Amino acid sequence: MKLEKKTIKATASHHQHDMENGDTSKPATKAVYTCPMDSEVHSDKPGNCPKCGMKLVKEKMPANINGAMNMEDESTTMAHIKVAKKNLGPIKTITSDVPPRTVVYHLYIRDTTVTFGKRPKRAISVNGQIPMPTLTFTEGDTAEIWVHNELKELTSLHWHGLFLPNKMDGVPYLTQMPIKPGATYLYKFPIVQHGTHWYHSHSGLQEQIGMYGAFIMNKR
């Protein structure tokens, strides 16, 4: 009994000594390995998954076992956020007092050639530019967009993310017939929302070679 008492005292004394010297380190956490394809597989040794044969990877352990937030990292992050907000300035929503109106655009679609490096490639320009012109409206307006197809192939235009009548959506053979070479097609629909969207061809790979542009609707 005497020996046991001394042992306990020695242990307590050793613990007190560590605390006084600032040694509060915790025992190292044992590594655990898991399968990247099956998270139910766990092993205390590296190797291969018994189910699929993939190499086991070490599980990521939280930086702080107690779940406490690293105050130093938090303060650094907040400092970056404050600087970003200061540089950005006040956020403004563009509004308009102009009464609703019909906004008209004419888009002329033509073949063109662009050069990347030393190799010329076929592209499609609209009103002589790539990307297509930025179309700007205000919520409550009516869009009237005339598309003049000067290509030697079928084309169409789709208004991405817009709320509009189905027949104006611009998907060939689904909501409309494609616009034939040499033909003109009118897209006319109300602007019932605000935001920054885009529009593009819904025919073949025309979007990839130039037929895409910004579609901006300001808030009224």
What's the arrangement of secondary structure elements?
Blueprint: H1 2-20, E1 33-34, E2 42-43, E3 57-58, H2 71-88, E4 102-116, E5 119-126, E6 135-138, E7 142-149, E8 158-160, E9 184-190, E10 195-200, E11 212-218
Summary tags:
alpha+beta; Immunoglobulin-like; 4-stranded mixed beta sheet; 11 strands; 17% helix
Explain what this protein looks like in three dimensions.
Strand 1 (33-34) and strand 2 form a beta hairpin. The protein has helices spanning 2-20, 71-88; strands at 33-34, 42-43, 57-58, 102-116, 119-126, 135-138, 142-149, 158-160, 184-190, 195-200, 212-218. It is extended and about 70 Å long. A four-stranded mixed beta sheet has the order 5-4-7-9, with no helix packed on it. A four-stranded mixed beta sheet has the order 6-11-10-8, with no helix packed on it. Among the domains are: 29-61, no CATH class; 102-218, Cupredoxins -  blue copper proteins (Immunoglobulin-like, Sandwich), CATH 2.60.40.420. Helices cover 17% and strands 29% of the residues. Residues 5-12 have low confidence and may be disordered. With 220 residues, the protein is an alpha+beta fold. It contains two helices and eleven strands; from the N terminus they run αβββαββββββββ.
Strand content: 25-35%
String of helices and strands? HEEEHEEEEEEEE
Q: Care to count the β-strands?
A: 11
**Tell me, what's the shape?**
extended
- Oligomer category: single chain
Assigned CATH architecture of one domain: Sandwich
**Portion of residues in helices?**
10-25%
Mean pLDDT across the residues is 83
CATH class of one domain, named Mainly Beta
Could you give the distance between the termini? 88 Å
Q: Any idea what the radius of gyration is?
A: 33 Å
Largest sheet: 4 strands, mixed
